[in-house]
DNA sequence: TTAGGGTTAG
């Protein structure tokens, strides 16, 4: 198709570029033709080639082509920045920016949105500060789009107050700026702040749209606020906001994250349009809520309906197998992925982590270890963490220690792993080793996350820490707790002081065990909620064994369902039994 | 001829 020696006209080359836009080999040949064509319009052809290369993601080649250009204009620099952002190559962006400065090319209003986003991706805080200064120097700070990117950058760096300050001082914020801020709050785990700004937005009479609704539903899912979530959606409906499949998927997810599989299923059946995200959300949600049978049934139904699963769907399927201890099924699904010709279904690290979790939970620790060794990619902290978790469950001190040593190399500052290791030692009664881990954590300044639980009541979320006495109803809560403890002790409840899953916090005296955040939250729920309604408790960390036993007894004593979401999964307590069947 | 916002997983 490509003539070898005859020089081609610009039009022909341009046409060729259009038709070979996604064929790397062809692009290379055309590139050579452009260079030897002797045409005076090389830059416009190279621009076209550059765009094609960015499209197919060959950023190295794109950079090479860019470097061959004669004095590229700013928009070309911007095009390359855009490519780096798209393909998440922030470091290359910074290098390019430096080159731009060296060559005295003035960035324009379009440059900074890309560059600031690149810095967000890079995640190096001092860099963010420096780039903000550059933006100010070039006078682009007041530009809405740049300011929005800056706000998002600060938020992603965890600089909440700076982000808020910047956002507040933005003049003439439009809907997109509000949505961006609310979305980034949710993405960074600051859902309560997102809620606050949603109310502010309403107070400022800014009309929200479907983007706002999605972020809010997502925030409510994170917070476990079923009431607020329903309220936001109803309001959106009343105001005539278009509730497309993305909104409905977000609503599905909100229901599932609040532990209401009934609401989710009802909606799922009613939905006019369902895509792979809808199905995956349901499967993942069922797995999270401990209904593995339903998750797998849905997966089969999905295939019968000819919906192609994606890698998230398989994460849900594998996690369903893991929570139900279905080792053989898990292996079978994993091999379906491994054998698939679909490049998108190749098992990723997360799938390997799921398999390690599945094997490990079922006590097949050696097999899990072997599985890791045979992985085609370098195991990361998540993989070792899964094995360490399994070692904790099965009190495998020796392997646990080995894994912990490896983990310290991969992820030295993740407190959760240190806590797991110390739990392993504690369960084995090796208190001297426990002390060693603890003092190491202190020395390294490893932060442990403070545990808290929350309950939503009348559109407000009530938070509790361990031994919390700040709630207005403190007196009543503690009295209720004492009353229940007395009653369930008579039913046979014994505090589980030597729990495997005890967090650093549970290491305190037994008296503090009885004041764990989830117990306070349950007591609060018993005082305030309507009889017959389930009590929904959300916990930011994994729940401890004692609270698990406690909740079982309370559900039997009071005939109320307790739905507790911890960091990993749900526990639905009913009449003394937990849906997790002790498998967590 | 370019720029800011949304759903599943982590």
TrEMBL record:
Q: Any signal peptide, and if so, which residues?
A: none
> PPR repeats span which residues?
73-107, 209-243, 275-309
Biological process terms in GO annotation: RNA metabolic process
Q: Any keyword Ribosomal protein?
A: no
The protein's UniProt keywords, in alphabetical order, are: Repeat
**Pfam families registered for this protein in UniProt:** DYW_deaminase, E_motif, Eplus_motif, PPR, PPR_2
Domain DYW: start-end pairs: 492-584
> What positions belong to coiled-coil segments?
none
Q: Which family does it belong to?
A: Belongs to the PPR family. PCMP-H subfamily.
Record's protein name: DYW domain-containing protein
Q: State the organism of origin.
A: Eruca vesicaria subsp. sativa
């Amino acid at each position: 198709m490509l003539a070898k020696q005859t020089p081609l006209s610009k039009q022909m080359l341009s046409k060729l570029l259009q038709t070979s836009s996604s064929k790397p080999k062809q692009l290379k040949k055309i590139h050579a033709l452009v260079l030897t064509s002797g045409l005076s319009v090389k830059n416009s052809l190279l621009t076209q080639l550059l765009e094609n290369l960015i499209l197919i993601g060959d950023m190295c080649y794109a950079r090479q082509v860019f470097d061959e250009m004669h004095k590229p204009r700013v928009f070309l620099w911007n095009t390359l920045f855009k490519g780096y952002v798209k393909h998440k190559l922030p470091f290359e962006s910074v290098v390019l920016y430096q080159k731009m400065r060296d060559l005295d090319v003035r960035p324009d209003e379009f440059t900074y949105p890309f560059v600031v986003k690149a810095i967000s991706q890079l995640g190096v805080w001092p860099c963010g500060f420096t780039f903000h200064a550059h933006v100010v120097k070039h006078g682009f700070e007041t530009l809405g789009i740049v300011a929005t990117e800056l706000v998002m950058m600060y938020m992603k760096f965890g600089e909440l107050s700076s982000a808020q300050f910047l956002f507040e001082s933005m003049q003439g914020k439009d809907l997109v700026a509000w949505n961006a801020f609310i979305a980034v709050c949710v993405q960074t785990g600051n859902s309560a702040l997102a809620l606050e700004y949603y109310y502010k937005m309403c107070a400022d009479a800014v009309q929200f749209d479907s983007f706002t609704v999605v972020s809010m539903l997502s925030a409510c899912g994170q917070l476990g606020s079923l009431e607020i979530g329903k309220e936001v959606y109803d309001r959106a409906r009343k105001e005539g906001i278009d509730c497309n499949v993305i909104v409905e998927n977000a609503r599905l997810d909100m229901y599932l994250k609040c532990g209401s599989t009934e609401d989710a299923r009802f909606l799922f059946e009613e939905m006019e349009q369902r895509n792979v995200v809808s199905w995956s959300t349901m499967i993942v949600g069922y797995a999270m809520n401990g209904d593995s049978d339903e998750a797998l049934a849905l997966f089969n139904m999905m295939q019968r309906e000819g919906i192609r699963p994606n890698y998230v769907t398989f994460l849900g399927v594998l996690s369903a197998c893991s929570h139900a201890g279905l080792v053989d099924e898990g292996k079978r699904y994993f091999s379906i992925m491994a054998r698939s010709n679909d490049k998108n279904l190749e098992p990723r690290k997360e799938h390997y982590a799921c398999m390690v979790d599945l094997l490990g939970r079922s006590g097949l620790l050696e097999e899990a270890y072997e599985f890791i060794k045979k992985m085609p990619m370098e195991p990361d902290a998540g993989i070792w963490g899964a094995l360490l978790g399994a070692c904790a469950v099965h009190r495998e001190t020796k392997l646990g220690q080995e894994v912990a040593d490896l983990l310290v190399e991969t992820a030295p500052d993740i407190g959760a792993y240190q806590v797991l290791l110390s739990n392993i030692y504690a369960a084995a009664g090796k208190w001297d080793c426990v002390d060693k881990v603890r003092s190491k954590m202190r020395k390294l300044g490893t932060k442990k996350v403070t545990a808290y639980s929350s309950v939503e009541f009348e559109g407000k979320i009530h938070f509790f820490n361990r031994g919390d006495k700040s709630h207005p109803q403190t007196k009543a809560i503690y009295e209720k707790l004492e009353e229940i403890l007395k009653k369930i002790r008579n039913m046979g409840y014994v505090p589980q002081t030597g729990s495997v899953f005890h967090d650093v916090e549970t290491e305190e005296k037994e008296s503090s065990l009885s004041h764990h955040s989830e117990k306070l939250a349950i007591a609060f729920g018993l005082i305030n909620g309507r009889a017959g309604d389930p009590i929904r408790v959300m916990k930011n960390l994994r729940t401890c064994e004692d609270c698990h036993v406690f909740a079982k007894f309370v559900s039997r004593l009071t005939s109320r369902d307790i739905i507790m979401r911890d960091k990993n999964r749900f526990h639905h307590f009913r009449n003394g039994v937990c849906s997790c069947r002790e498998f967590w």
